[in-house]
Amino acid sequence: MVKKIKSSMNHVVLLAYLAVILFPFLFVLFSSVKANNVEIASNPFGLPTEFKFSNYADAWVNAKISTYFLNSLYIAVVASVATILIASMASFAITRMRFNKLSPWLFQLILIGILIPGNALLLPIYNLMRQFNFLDTHWALLVPYTANSIPFTIVILTAFMRSLPTEIEEAAVVDGLRAHSIFVKIIMPLTVPALVTVFIVNFLGNWNEFLLANYFLSEDSLKTLPVGMVGFRDAYNINYAQMSAGIVYSVVPVMVIYAILQEKIIEGLTAGGVKG
Amino acid sequence: MNKALRKPVTYILFLLPTLFLFTLFFIYPVINATYYSFTSWNGISNVVKFTGLANYSRAMNDPNFWIAVKNNGLFILFSVFIQVPIIILFSLLIANVKKLKGLYKTAVFAPSVMSTAVIGILWGFIYEPDIGLMNNFLGLFGIDKIYWLSDRSWAMISILITNGWQWTGFYIVMVLAAIISIPKELDEAAMIDGATGWQRARKITVPLIMPIISVVIMLSVAGAMKAADIVLVMTKGGPSGATDVMATYMLKHSIKSFKYGFGNSIAVLIFIFTLIITVLYQLLVAKRTERIEY
Amino acid sequence: MKKSLVMLLSLLFIASTVLAACSSKQETTSPQAGNDKPAEEKVEPFEMKMRHIEIGDSNKNRFGRLEAVVKNTEAENPGLTIKLDGVESEVNRKDKLRSEMAAGNPPDIFDAFGSPDVGVFAKEGLVLDLTPILEEMGLKDKFVSLTPWTHDGKIYGLPKGGSIEGYFYNKKYFAEKGLELPKTLAEMEQIAEKIKADGKVPIAQASKDAWVPLMTTNNLWAYYAGAEFTNGFKTGESKWDDPRMVEAVTKHQDWVKKGYFKKGELGLEYNNQRNQLLTDEAIMMYDGSWAYSALTDEKTAGADTKDKFGFFLMPPLKEGEGTSSMVDTNNGYAFSAKAAEDPRKLAAIKSFIKNFFNEDVQLQSFKEDGMLPSMKIEDSKMKEVAEHPLMQEILARMNEVKYTWPAFDALVQAEVNTELGTGIQQVIEGVKEPKAMLEAMQKVQEQVNEETDAAQ
């Protein structure tokens, strides 16, 4: 009985928290079907007087979502997966391989990477992309996106890998497994919750990235979603209704991917028990 | 015995891609920025004139720069002392409920999915003094109108609230992943011993997720030091520079007026300040709470 | 389960990498495929890059006009393909164009701001000097103002359009309350008092971006200190702490103190001042003529805007002194100096100029977007295309302007602009008095002037 009350208390607190953080989304949902800026600005959180679903169709066309959406999806997925592969290899080497002198230094070096302010570094990166002839190809986003999230990913993954007991791979070594097998067969599967989380986080960053996407790509057919979104709000004018519809287009897919990943994979794995 | 994990070639191969990209995208730009920070380069010209430490002393002597530094400090304090406890609290709550877990985990993440530019417009409506959500809500309790974004005593807090709204869920998701990785047996054993939920959380869960909490703190600090977008979209550093942080100060006083060298010196300062804080943090706090075994 | 996930991820990655490789391959093979074309077309194809900022729904008319011009230019220059690259205005101005300039490799034709940007690029020899071309084409005297584009006596670019600034007002409200358009600043204040007494916000203003209130301040000081006064800051002839400047800024602050603007407007985004006017919260709004489309477009303004809004200029201090307004021509197109080394590209640039900067395009811009011409165009022709009553009114007011001047930010250095931005917000906020703010401004101005002198 006491337990029940306690757990329902938890739910009360959590639901209250959700209500607070999700309330602003009502603005987005309501605005996306409102008729014009006047209706939105005079009562931003009020219910729409009539539902204008054509905003979604207009936003779809105006932001060229049909083209940009696939580009975004493809770039965000590839870059995030590439980051994870590269970063997990490095994290494995740093945390699980026995190079106790060098590893801490490498880790500190990479840690410094998350401290670097991005804004000042654009010009050198532009020059790199130009020299590699990457400008105006998807490589101009894939490579920087992959590289930019590496330090963050390594910091997270090393934190997870460190918490795994050392006995695990010692047993594997005794079984005669080589380093790469230990990495692929033992450590990676055990880190899946972290990998999925980091994937989501990186995917999200890439999905919303605006500056480089605008900067490095000229060809319209290559551009990504955030570039299309800017069409609703330039310096002189904002179309709130279509902007809101655009937000729905850009937020929903990420939420769906996240929901699926966390439901099916993280929960599935842990529910199946850790048998190693 | 574990020879497989001592092979230098394997070690290097595993690290090579990271080091390659890291050198290109982090080390090279930083060296580049440091170099130009000692010049008066305008970002375009062929002529690059060395000015020594002039850019640095210019920043150090500008009271506006120190306002920005102070605001970065507020950012850090808010992140570490308000946001992090909330993150831990709600992570534990979510980890401990059985029903609706999926909903909670998905929903808390939602604010982080929105792009910052859009968040600026959205929260503009929330903080609107007359018809905004915030004042309407506070009005229910008879609280007078607050001019959130235009009153300098509230503007910074407004930004911090929005920033917290945007990123708390993001960190909760990370901490949750750590909690999930904890072997169930530990928790179950404690449960059999009759430990209450809070005791288990305090004695088992929190110590085990300490490394990731430490990472969350570090990321918050780094994020707070680099913050620019959220300030730009919320207040543009206003009213009259009261909410400028170092990164927006850099944009305002260098990019706009073709002072690439000066801008780079601010970037280098942000980097150095962050480095100092992180080193201090690691020396003073992290060493005591986490035992890193290499 | 676990294994399959790792497999899945790796597969996904490999598949995508292959895809990426393929897609980039396509791009590298596509140009220079002219070999199997019929031999009689001996024209060597060539490509020019053009940077524009006409992206998104609100710029679709502008983009349409640009595309038409590009097509004509291509038709006139056999072999030419113009590759259009649309970039968001701020990213182009602050990042992309600058990087390209730094690399010595700007697009052949690019959208830019005359002052200070193009001035800086021109100093490095990166921008084509249009002076001889304009003379050759007889265009030199056809523009309303080329001041922002003229550096050291040479013209480096051409403005796309022009704009003036003044008050948009709620015509219906004025009619209902029997208010008449003000002929002096004092009358303007009386009107504001009446509106305030009625419980409405007299003037919509949203000052998160400092340039928004500065439009008003700039107009005030043009009245108090004179239309030419701003020219003198750079040279040291005019002083920011001149008593007339103090008067002008004090007037703006007075209006804030008297409650002519919405309280808390310092935290509001530019777009919000349109909202204030559109939702009848405020009755007047000082804005550029570019606000026309936001106030008439059904998607933003709603359906009943036909006769709702009118336009008048800020009235002078004394009746009959003549109105004074900013005329902005700072945004337009400039051309790469490098491109002009290729005679075919130079020819293409000339035909682009001919096709873009002419009466037809200017009139079309006016008709479709309410964009005022940057070229001198006969009144009667303008009247013919002005359909919307608001546009007719803007046009009528424009013709009454006695004094015109470029916006201050085209006449002072960027640092001074930044400082003034902070300064005006301090004055609005009430943390600094106009005199103290202007004295600080003068110090900055002197310092910047010294630095510019030293650099030259």
In short:
Chain B: InterPro entries: ABC_transporter_permease (IPR051393), MetI-like (IPR000515), MetI-like_sf (IPR035906). The complex is a heterotrimer of chains A (276), B (294) and C (456). Chain A is mostly helical and 276 residues long.
CATH class of the domain at 56-113 and 148-289 in chain B: Mainly Alpha
Counting structural domains of chain C, the number is: 2
Shape of chain C: globular
Question: Which stretches of chain C are poorly predicted, pLDDT < 50 over at least 5 residues?
Answer: 5-9, 16-39
CATH fold group of the domain at 56-113 and 148-289 in chain B: MetI-like fold
Overall pLDDT of chain C: 89
CATH topology of the largest domain in chain C: D-Maltodextrin-Binding Protein, domain 2
Reported CATH architecture of the domain at 56-113 and 148-289 in chain B: Orthogonal Bundle
Which geometry of chain B do the CA atoms define? flat
Count the E strands of chain C.
13
What order do the helices and strands of chain B follow?
A: HHHHHHHHHHHH
CATH superfamily of the largest domain in chain C: Periplasmic binding protein-like II
So, the CATH homologous superfamily of the domain at 56-113 and 148-289 in chain B? MetI-like
Largest sheet of chain C: 6 strands, mixed
Radius of gyration of chain B: 23 Å
> What is the multimeric organization of the chains shown?
heterotrimer
Helix percentage of chain B: over 70%
Number of helices of chain B: 12
Approximate strand percentage of chain B: under 5%
* Uncertain stretches of 5 or more adjacent residues of chain B: 290-294
